Amino acid sequence: MKCRVCREPAVIDVRRQNANYCRDHFLRMCRDQVAKAIAEFDMLRPGERVLVAVSGGKDSLACWHLLRELGYEADGFVIGLGIGEYSDESTQYARDFAEQRGLTLHYCNLREEHGFDVPTAAKATRRVPCSACGLSKRHLFDAAAREHGYDVVATGHNLDDEAAVLFGNVLRWQTDYLGRQLPVLPGENGFPRKVKPLVRLGERETAAYCVLTGIDYIVEECPMAEGNKHLGYKAALNEIELESPGSKHDFYFGFLKRASARFASDVESQHRELSACTRCGAPTPEDVCAFCKLVERSRGHEPVTLRARR
Amino acid sequence: MKCRVCREPAVIDVRRQNANYCRDHFLRMCRDQVAKAIAEFDMLRPGERVLVAVSGGKDSLACWHLLRELGYEADGFVIGLGIGEYSDESTQYARDFAEQRGLTLHYCNLREEHGFDVPTAAKATRRVPCSACGLSKRHLFDAAAREHGYDVVATGHNLDDEAAVLFGNVLRWQTDYLGRQLPVLPGENGFPRKVKPLVRLGERETAAYCVLTGIDYIVEECPMAEGNKHLGYKAALNEIELESPGSKHDFYFGFLKRASARFASDVESQHRELSACTRCGAPTPEDVCAFCKLVERSRGHEPVTLRARR
pLDDT by residue (tens digit) across B122-149? Predict the structure, then answer.
């Protein structure tokens, strides 16, 4: 197995590209793919300040690292979600990453600052935890960007993530979600631009990127995500990819190229008038934003303690 | 386990409907679903003559049986495709079905009438056998409908088939295929209307329908289809369906309702002018139709003999 570029011994194969790479050319390939995604979708412009949504997992840390490597002024933001030891450990990985590299990491603890955590919110809302978690993260990243003057929020969503989300949206033909499943959402109405610089990298590549650059990250999946549909969609697409390498890439980028625009007019938020939330000031179509409603619903609840399953 | 309708002991559960049925009410449910599909998509009108594309498998025989049960004037057409013993056996099932019920079954043998068979065509064209097979079947069904004066060709595609084909089309965003993946294709330019009356039934139900009505059918899958992508797509969707019963139904009917029309303008054949094939007279956008080209390419080839794998 030889490197596609230099013919020296390779350390990794990327079946989708039908290519093998040595360490250095693999890392260069990753940088090139991120640079290509940024250019292709006009994600970032020189001089913009980027806030990276960091979880402590491989994707968000690789994203932060790659943006710095490419010369962007990128700081991090991590949230203590209160998902037992998992949250403590993953936050620590983010802190260590920042500290070792002298980078700025903003931090927010859901319980300390807003009086609830994800397990409690899930119980209070009687919905899957990923729902309250996603809502909280989106809100807090947006608010942090506004507060600290960042132009853009970058997330570590990789090709596998985007393909699985697309599969879920297509299985139910959720036309509004399809209309806004883009690698860039423009900043408007007080929301920062959202970008996904890793959409051209698979999750096996982001993991390898971390290993080969010495980035320590939390390896476990979130314990509350277990058994969620997203993981089932990933598994189904993995089977397809195994038979036909490149399927995920073609599925996602074929969508962007040939289908996405057909659903653009269905995006609900486009048709809404926004005003400031009467509690927190965030832009919202109603009087009180969804996050402040979640805060209210969750606060009255007895905290839920996650038991370790080790 | 009790019948949803009469509370007598049930013989089958249909998880998608969250329902169990006794024999009689299951058969009635199948008829109702077919009647509903026919009405919903305006597939057939009273007095029209229907030619059922019969393979000898569960779906096409159930389709024929159900159309007769619903009072349609439906005859069958089976093709000897030359796929070794599989073709001989499946054709025999079709013949027995017709004979036992005094129905008209048209027959065409590819090798005797056109000088080739599917395995040979696959070798000659160096493509997957399903490609030459599908092309031949479509051509011969259309030609038989014209020759014998049928208004409509009905095929036994069930919900599982359509969902798997849709998945394949969506994975590659083949917008022209998506634009014409409909349960009814209108008859025009010398082509008969094409209808799929079983789109509201899963393949487990068509199998149960045959068993419960005493229809003998060939159980084996076509040996040449082994390992094709379609079967991989079915397996992936089966996993999803197992977790969330009704997923296939929502995927397919959600597509028809909310997405299909967005791809209608991409259908290539709409933009083509057709004239009669100079060899066989079939409508074609070129001088010679694709089937006659296949005949020509395959005839020069030494026949391929399939070896039994028992």
Answer: 888 888 888 899 999 999 999 999 999 9
Residues of B in contact with A164 (CB under 8 A): none
Q: What is the ipTM of this complex?
A: 0.90
- DSSP for residue B8: S
- CA B246 distance to own-chain centroid: 22
Q: Does B171 touch chain A (CB under 8 A)?
A: yes
Helical segments of chain B, H only:
23-40, 58-69, 84-101, 110-114, 118-125, 129-148, 159-171, 175-180, 203-213, 229-243, 247-258, 290-299
CB spacing of A254 vs B173 below 8 angstroms: yes
Q: How close, in Å, is residue B307 to chain A by CA atoms?
A: 26
Angle at B230 between CA B229 and CA B231, to 5 degrees: 90
Return the pLDDT at B221: 87
CA quadruple B271, B273, B274, B277: dihedral positive or negative?
negative
Look at residues B134, B242, B139, B243 and name the one whose alpha carbon lies nearest to residue B192.
B139
Q: Which residues contact A126 (CB under 8 A, 6 or more apart)?
A: none
Q: What CA–CA distances, in Å, run from A228 to A136, A223, A237, A239?
A: 18, 10, 15, 18
**Helix, strand counts (H, E) of chain B:** 12, 10
Q: Which of B96, B97, B89, B136 is nearest to B116 (CA)?
A: B136
DSSP, res A2: B
Residues of chain B in contact with residue A233, where contact means CB-CB under 8 angstroms, are 240
**pLDDT tens-digit profile of B115-125?**
888 988 888 88
CB contact under 8 A, A251 and B170: yes
CB contacts, 8 Å: A263 with chain B: 262
Let me know: does A91 contact A272? Beta carbons within 8 Å: no
Query: B46 versus B4: which is more confidently predicted?
Result: B4
* CB-based contact A235:B239 (threshold 8 Å): yes
β B12-14/B19-21 pair status: antiparallel
Question: Containing H/E element for B272?
Answer: none
Q: How near does any CA of chain B get to the CA of A259, in Å? A: 7
Output the CA angle B216-B220-B226, nearest 5 degrees: 155
From B170, B243, B255, residue closest to A232, measured CB to CB: B243
Contact A256, A183 (CB under 8 A): yes
User: What is this structure's pTM?
Assistant: 0.92
Distance separating alpha carbons of residues B237 and A238, to the nearest angstrom: 13
User: Between vectors from CA B223 to CA B220 and to CA B228, what angle results, nearest 5°?
Assistant: 110
Gap between the Cα atoms of B284 and B295, Å rounded: 15
In angstroms, the CA B136 to CA B192 distance is 16
Question: Beta partners for B21?
Answer: B12
Angle between helices B247-258 and A159-171 (to 10 degrees): 80
User: Helix A58-69 crosses helix A203-213 at what angle (to 10 degrees)?
Assistant: 70
Q: Do residues A310 and A85 lie in contact, with contact meaning Cβ atoms separated by under 8 Å?
A: no
Cα-Cα end-to-end distance for chain A: 39
Alpha-helix runs per DSSP H in A45-156: 58-69, 84-101, 110-114, 118-125, 129-148
